[in-house]
Amino acid sequence: GDKVKQSPSALSLQEGTNSALRCNFSIAATTVQWFLQNPRGSLINLFYLVPGTKENGRLKSAFDSKESYSTLHIRDAQLEDSGTYFCAAEDGNAGAKLTFGGGTRLTVRP
Amino acid sequence: EAAVTQSPRSKVAVTGGKVTLSCHQTNNHDYMYWYRQDTGHGLRLIHYSYVADSTEKGDIPDGYKASRPSQENFSLILELASLSQTAVYFCASSTPDWVSSYEQYFGPGTRLTVL
Q1: Residue A45 three-state SS
Q2: Is the pLDDT of residue A94 over 70?
Q3: Residues of B in Cβ contact (< 8 Å) with A102
Q4: Of chain B's two ends, which shows fewer C-beta atoms within 10 Å, N or C?
Q5: Which segments of chain A are extended strands (E)?
Q6: Is residue A81 within 8 Å of A56, Cβ to Cβ?
Q7: Which strands make up the sheet holding B19-25, listed edge to edge?
Q8: B113 vs A98: CA distance, rounded Å
Q9: B100 with A48: Cβ contact below 8 A
Q10: What are phi and psi of B85, to 5 degrees?
Q11: Res. B101 pLDDT band, cuts 50 70 90
Q12: CA distance A71 to A84
């Protein structure tokens, strides 16, 4: 099965609303990165997490290594938040490599 | 923030031909990586390198070779390109430090089409 499973696979939000994306890990994740892939295809770093939480503007992310999951919360969604969000985990048993989830495609509607 | 560049940005290759994708980073990062992304999917690791003149196999290395001639440069080589290797290829770099160990920074990607 998938080592890093993201949910939901797709999401449509009204502008100004809130949502949460989730990643579940079946590997011994020690760190997590969240990326936004914009419509041009570029990967933008959002968060790098050890166990704990981080916040940046309207985005907040948490990583619980014991329960093997991470979340990304989007508050007051804006049109420019549209794109595909990826989480990626570093496996503590496999060195400095990332395993990616399948992504959540987010569409923000006016 | 790491600056990672890739060349070419897009390429059309013929089946059976040789393709070389190049990656250059300017932030003195030790580690470099090659990933591929198929349409509608996440990235998968092909090869990576911890130090110049040494490469390691990732999760999907078959059909690919890698070369790390210097700290700044990392190439991905397809000796005999196949249709199944049509994808977008991303290079990344990282370096362990006390603030954000191993945080990876990605290049803009190379779109490869094999016909």
Answers
A1: strand
A2: yes
A3: 41-42
A4: N
A5: 4-7, 10-14, 19-25, 29-37, 43-49, 52-56, 59-64, 69-74, 83-91, 98-100, 104-109
A6: no
A7: B4-7, B19-25, B73-78, B65-67
A8: 25
A9: yes
A10: -95, 5
A11: low
A12: 15
Query: What is the number of residues in chain A?
Result: 110
Q: Does B105 touch chain A (CB under 8 A)?
A: yes
A38 shares contact with chain B (CB less than 8 Å): no
The string of pLDDT tens digits covering residues A37-59 is 999 999 999 999 999 999 999 99
3-state secondary structure of A47: strand
Q: Do A97 and B33 touch (CB under 8 A)?
A: yes
Instruction: Give burial (CB, 10 Å; 0-12/13-18/19+) of A5.
Output: middle
Give whole-number Cα distances, A51 to A35, A68, B18, in Å.
17, 10, 43
